[in-house]
Amino acid sequence: MICDNITVGQNGHLYFAGQDTVELAKQYGTPLYLMDEDKIRESCRVYTAAFKKHFGENARPLYASKANCFKRIYEIMREENMGIDVVSSGEMYTAIQAGYDLSHAYFHSNNKTDADIAYGMDNNIGYFVADNVEEIKAIEAEAARRGIRQKVLLRLTPGIDPHTYEAIATGKVDSKFGSAIETGQAEEITVFTLAQPHVELMGFHCHVGSQVFGEDIFERAAVVMLEFIADMKNKHGYMAPQLDLGGGYGVRYVESDPYLDVDTKVGQVAAAIKEACARLNIEMPEIHMEPGRSIVAAAGMTLYTCGTVKKIPGYKNYVSIDGGMPDNPRFALYGSKYTCLVANKMNEECDFVASIVGRCCESGDIIQEGVSVPSSVGRGDTVAVCTTGAYNYSMASNYNRLPRAPIVMLRGGNESYVAVRRESFADLCMNDL
Ligand SMILES: *Cc1c(COP(=O)(O)O)cnc(C)c1O
Q1: 221 C-alpha to ligand 1 centroid (Å)
Q2: Cα(62)–Cα(126) distance, integer angstroms
Q3: 0.90 exceeded by the pTM?
Q4: What is the pLDDT at residue 287?
């Protein structure tokens, strides 16, 4: 299986985190997001241990909460001593509701509104990661008004192409994110920021992309960033205390995806950083990284109930499910791969090829194409889509007025509880006057 929390029981049912998914679908209804709490905690601990081992005691993984954002996940991050990234006032609000102390939070986004900046300062956010000069001006003005000195990092683009999907590649020079080192804009914004009395420059940030498997992408990005840091030290006498290398480690969606060992990867990045620091004659800054997908993706699974199966001889077959692009828009957005299984027929041969499609009035409402399933697949079967813990619930919509699915957490091999309840029809009309 693509992840060690997915197994098949003696009854031929698919098990997730040690629990029978067919039973869970019956108990909680479908569509249903499952989250394996033990797996989330394990991933946090793997990152934290690797950071301490390779980068030193002060290094901290920050959970990029846009991957999956709800109150319970921030409680888990608090308990696991993880820092967090947020990208909006709504994410900050959710974290606050969970009792998460925002002094450990980094506020990203390529366009923070004045209201966002004020909200962050109202709630004592630890750091702003400023995208551009305009934003530094807005942060400086708001901090001056309040008589505070706000800690900031600057987001830079190191000019590295991570060879992932175009829509999730962010570190190239011609990106909507950050200020480019290559064009001199990174130096310009650094000099400008250092001259502002109400912001304190804490260092630099980059994020090259997502679902990255490339051999040495993070190493190359780190070296480019450290060369820039050394350059700023030599030219302007400024030594950056922090370097944040962003998120992006890839996860296994299908059998052909490689398995990525976090400890090994972090060790390789640390080796490249230490070597570069020695060569450039600078001390090693405090290193941060911001995993999102690799913390939560494999901790998630979505369950659906199968409806119509349509066979079009000589063309295509369709297996319809009771969810679709409103709960998982990723195939529609960038053709993402997923492993789809018929959860109550795991021992049957998969000899029928079909597209798994949603129930929305939209031809692009597809979860996956060319999936092999048992030919007996039909109404009432439970369909499972694996590795949906990242960028599914957080991207969910109410298209076609479908109520959003609940999130049920699994732990200890036999315990389950609702972390986000299923939306009701009344919820759908809650804001309609
Ligand atoms: C999206 C994002 C992340 C997380 O990326 P993953 O691929 O989910 O690990 C981290 N940092 C920034 C700035 C991001 O935009």
Answers
A1: 15
A2: 12
A3: yes
A4: 96
CA distance 328 to 389: 10
- Verify whether ligand 1 is closer than 6 Å to residue 247 (CB atom): yes
pLDDT at res. 358: 98
Percent of the chain predicted with pLDDT > 70: 97
Task: Supply the pLDDT for residue 211.
Answer: 87
Ligand 1 atom with the smallest distance to the CA of 87 is 15
Pocket test for ligand 1, best of 43, 86, 108 (most atoms within 8 A of CB): 108
Question: Do 395 and 296 touch, CB atoms closer than 8 A?
Answer: no
Nearest atom within ligand 1 for CA of residue 291: 9
Strand 14-16, strand 19-20: pairing: antiparallel
| Dihedral-angle region of residue 18 (phi above 0 means left; psi in -120 to 50 means alpha; beta otherwise) | left
Our answer on whether the CB atom of 321 is closer than 6 Å to any ligand 1 atom is no
List of E strands, 245-378? 286-289, 300-311, 317-321, 340-342, 352-357, 366-373
Task: Extract the residue ranges of the chain whose pLDDT is less than 70.
Answer: 162-174
pLDDT at 318: 97
Backbone angles phi, psi at 155, to 5 degrees: -85, 125
Atom of ligand 1 nearest to the CA of 209: 7
pLDDT of residue 215: 75
Check: CB of residue 34 under 8 Å from CB of residue 301: yes
pLDDT value of position 125: 98
Prior bond to 326 cis, omega within 30?
no
- Going along the chain from its start, the domains and CATH numbers come out as 6-36+297-428 (2.40.37.10), 108-291 (3.20.20.10)
Residue 97, pLDDT score: 98
Alpha carbons 228 and 240: distance in angstroms, whole number: 10
Classified as helix, coil or strand, 73 is helix
Q: Do 394 and 66 contact (CB within 8 A), yes or no?
A: yes
Question: Ligand 1 in contact with 244 (CB < 6 A)?
Answer: no
Spatial separation of the C-alpha atoms in residues 365 and 326, rounded to whole Å: 9
What would the pLDDT profile of 195-254 be if each residue is shown by its tens digit? 999 999 999 999 988 888 877 899 999 999 999 999 999 999 999 999 999 999 999 999
How many angstroms separate the first and last alpha carbons of the chain? Answer: 49
Q: What DSSP string runs through 248-283?
A: -B---SSTTSPP--HHHHHHHHHHHHHHHHHHHT-P
